[in-house]
Amino acid sequence: MSNEMKDSSEPDDVLVFRSRRWVKPEDLNAHGTLFGGSLLRWIDEEAAIYAIIQLGNHRAVTKFMSEIDFVSSARQGDLVELGIRATRFGRTSLTMRAEVRNIITRERILAIERIVFVSLDGDGAPIPHGYTEITYNRDRLPAH
Ligand SMILES: CC(C)(COP(=O)(O)OP(=O)(O)OC[C@H]1O[C@@H](n2cnc3c(N)ncnc32)[C@H](O)[C@@H]1OP(=O)(O)O)[C@@H](O)C(=O)NCCC(=O)NCCS
């Protein structure tokens, strides 16, 4: 197996933070800190990309999110990073864990224990994906 997307020191149960964001004025709430909606949009997009890569299907949709814990706040100019990891491959679904943290201080900003995406066919019905393990390659990417 090639480790194109995997650091050789990466244990199999550890979150990998692949995506980064710069907190900008349009991401703030009235209190001047990072708006929860922006954070959720970032996480949902990151989870969607991860699910597409893992399930080999562009038609992967958010089905469920467990409790969302906004652990600490971020401010304008902060650099944050997003981590996602598959925790369970179902028949048509993929369950992931997500975390956002400050790149500099490593302080945790958000944690979601379970995000479930479902693989759909062209009619919008759940379709079995056939996978049981994480891929660290681009081998499942849809052709179009
Ligand atoms: C995704 C959708 C087609 C699933 O329909 P459904 O009738 O729940 O389908 P199923 O009952 O066959 O479940 C499909 C999978 O989702 C899982 N699932 C269903 N409800 C769930 C829930 N509340 N929590 C966690 N997983 C759930 C099932 O366990 C199943 O997984 P598995 O095949 O790996 O065992 C349908 O709910 C839908 O279209 N939702 C809107 C999705 C969407 O538009 N998301 C964007 C944000 S609005």
Features:
Thiol Ester Dehydrase, Chain A, binds coenzyme A
What does this structure look like?
This protein has 144 residues and is α+β, with helices and mostly antiparallel strands. It has one domain (16-119): Thiol Ester Dehydrase, Chain A (Roll), CATH 3.10.129.10. Helix content is 14%, strand content 34%. The protein is built from one helix and six strands; from the N terminus they run βαβββββ. The chain has one helix at 36-55, and strands at residues 16-22, 60-65, 68-70, 79-89, 93-102, 108-119. Strands 1, 2, 3, 4, 5 and 6 form a six-stranded antiparallel β-sheet that branches. The chain is elongated.
Computed Rg: 16 Å
**How many structural units, i.e. domains?**
1
The name of the CATH topology is: Thiol Ester Dehydrase, Chain A
CATH homologous superfamily caption = Hotdog Thioesterase
Q: Which ligands appear in the coordinates?
A: coenzyme A
Order of helices and strands: EHEEEEE
How much helix, percentage-wise, in residues? 10-25%
Instruction: Give a count of the beta strands, DSSP E runs of length 2 or more.
Output: 6
Strand content: 25-35%
Secondary structure tally, helices: 1
What structural category arises from helix and sheet content? alpha+beta
Shape: elongated
Summarize the main sheet. 6 strands, antiparallel
Distance between the termini: 24 Å
Average pLDDT confidence is 92
CATH top level? Alpha Beta
| Shape-level CATH architecture | Roll
Low-confidence stretches: 1-5
